Amino acid sequence: MEIKELKEFLEQIKFDEKGLVVAVAQDYITNEVLMVAYMSKESLEITLKEKRACYFSRSRQSLWRKGETSGHIQKLKGLYYDCDADAVLMKVEQIGCACHTGAYSCFYNKAYEENVTDQAILKKVYNQIINRKENPVEESYTNYLFEKGLDKILKKVGEETSEVIIGAKNKNKEELVYELSDLIYHSLVLMVSEGVTIDEIKQELAKRHK
After folding, report:
1. Is 90 exceeded by the pLDDT of residue 210?
2. Which CATH number characterizes residue 37's domain?
3. pTM, whole model, 2 decimals?
4. Which of 38, 164, 167, 192 is 20 to 30 A from 25, alpha carbon to alpha carbon?
């Protein structure tokens, strides 16, 4: 965005009496709402220039670059404002967790949810595995795998691969679906362990799909 366009955009936003506007951060892949905070004109300008979320902390009364201490930054992928120009929506790539509690999203308290298939479930499981690695939970199987290390993870991937083969040979679809799910989960754990992202897998698949 050019300087002139940025100035025109900022003039359209209706900041409140404290000079702030509500800002919603949303995962650009899964569309999951991650958090709600506030932005000032300066933090909004910084966000657009640096392509990284910068908020205004009401408690500290100062600018707050998301992840400046935790490393859990938000890379800006898109920014929009509503019909009244009094709220902004950011599509971001969340690195690590958005919530200070260690949860990926601040909206983890469920009041109601339709029982529908989530098209972005792989991304959600992947993010949950990252969360478990960075914020261990007692008696978590995922944490058990990370504690045991790469050899244990690779052993499980090998075991699940064999069970997928057996399920297919048995012509048992229910068994095959179950074992494929186990294999995919353990493969995601391996990816997190070795720093491989879902985007990197997508990019590799895209190269082959030509």
Report:
1. no
2. 3.10.20.810
3. 0.64
4. 192
